[in-house]
Give the backbone structure.
Amino acid sequence: PPKEKPKRPALDRRELTRPRLAPRAQSRKALVEKFGGAASGPAPNIKKTGGTNTIKNMLLEWCRAKTRGYEHVDIQNFSSSWSSGLAFCALIHKFFPDAFDYAALDPANRRENFALAFATAEQHADCAPLLEVEDMVRMSVPDSKCVYTYVQELYRSLVDKGLVKTKKK
C-alpha cells in the first residue's frame, strides 16, 4: 500500500491574510536607531539621471547630426535605418572623408557597404570588429542591439582618438 503523506494542519484564514508588519516595523525602527534617528533638515537635491533610454537617444541624435546631408541616410532608429550599410558608411566618412568616395556608393550593394564601413572603422578608428558583414547581409533589418553596440564602440573609439569631444566632469 502507498504511504500516506502526513497532512498539514489546516490554517485559519485569518492567519493567511494577517499582515506581517511587525518584523519589518521592528527592523525599520532598529535601523533608525542605529543611524542616529530620522533625517532632519531639507532633503538633498537629488537629480534623477536618465537611464539607458536617454543614452540611446543621445547616441541616436549624435548619429543623425553627423550623417545629416548624406544621401540615402535618414537615421530614425538602430535597426532599419542601417539596413543598406550607408548609415555606417556616412558616419565613418564624416570622420575619415579621404578613406573612400561616399558619392560612389550604391544603397543596393549592401555587402560592399557593410564591408567598407567595418574595414574603414577598424583601420582608421581602431574600432573592434563587433559585427560580421555576412550577418548584416543575412538580416533584411539589422538587430537594433547589435547596431547600437557597434555604434557605441565606434563612438568610444572616436573619443579615444580625440575626434569626438566630450564634456569633462
About this structure: The radius of gyration is 28 Å. Residues 144-160 form the longest helix (17 residues). The mean pLDDT is 84.
